[in-house]
Design a protein that fits this description.
Helix content of chain B: 55-70%
Largest sheet of chain A: none
Radius of gyration of chain A: 5 Å
Distance between the termini of chain B: 27 Å
Largest interface: A-B, 8 and 20 residues
Largest sheet of chain B: none
Shape of chain A: elongated
Number of helices of chain A: 0
Shape of chain B: globular
Structural class of chain A: little secondary structure
Strand content of chain A: under 5%
Helix content of chain A: under 10%
Distance between the termini of chain A: 8 Å
Number of strands of chain A: 0
Oligomer: heterodimer
Strand content of chain B: under 5%
Radius of gyration of chain B: 19 Å
């Protein structure tokens, strides 16, 4: 939740 | 942590976009607050259910004047939901008592538990290896900035992270943005299509 950097 | 209550008035009127902006800042902290329940409940399910409850009850929340009233409210909602789920599973013998350490999970804000959660990586070895490889290729300031972000798990303000790696806030933010772009491009070159892997 990397996801936020690139979420749930 | 920025005061996310700036979004509260719009959220209270049913503005889902405002809730999305609040979520972007609050989710990491909420997930960390459930770290001590990791073996007792499916934290992902509890977190999603809790966020839906927060959305439904936010219009009735009366701020107490301190920052991040909605985040603090959400932490309480999530903890209560986790305890309820843990008791339900324990009553149905789905969770053996021995796995719970003989008692109710401890303080959900236990910093040691949150720190332990950062020690493991993504489960898929193939994906983990490529992420590590790409992160290793970043090098220099972008790598240090991204490592600080990843290491904090959303618990620390960027200003604190920047100071920790010896950068000004502006330089830190530029390096984080650069690291994100480089990491995404590297993973794409390695055959990892982010939309497919993480959606």
């Amino acid at each position: 939740r990397l996801e936020a950097a690139l979420t749930t | 942590m920025t005061d996310l209550d700036v979004h509260l008035p719009a959220i209270a009127t049913g503005d889902a976009d405002a809730f999305a902006r609040w979520l972007a800042g609050a989710e990491g902290r909420l997930r960390a607050s459930l770290a001590s329940f990791a073996a007792a409940v499916d934290v992902e399910a509890v977190l999603q259910e809790s966020l839906l409850r927060v959305w439904n009850t936010a219009p009735r929340l009366v701020p107490d004047g301190r920052p991040n009233a909605l985040v603090r409210f959400a932490v309480r909602v999530a903890r209560n939901a986790a305890v309820s789920e843990w008791r339900r599973l324990a009553a149905g013998r789905v969770v053996p008592e021995v796995e719970l350490g003989g008692g109710e999970p401890g303080d959900p804000l236990d910093p040691a538990a949150a720190e332990r959660a950062l020690e493991s990586g993504p489960a898929d070895p193939w994906l983990r290896e490529r992420i590590r490889r790409c992160h290793g290729e970043l090098g220099g300031s972008p790598a240090r900035a991204l490592a600080a972000r990843l290491g904090s798990g959303g618990l620390e303000h960027d200003r604190e992270l920047a100071a920790g790696v010896g950068m000004t806030l502006n330089t830190f933010l530029q390096n984080v943005a650069r690291a994100r772009k480089l990491l995404a491009a590297c993973l794409e070159r390695a055959g990892v299509r982010l939309a497919e892997v993480w959606s």
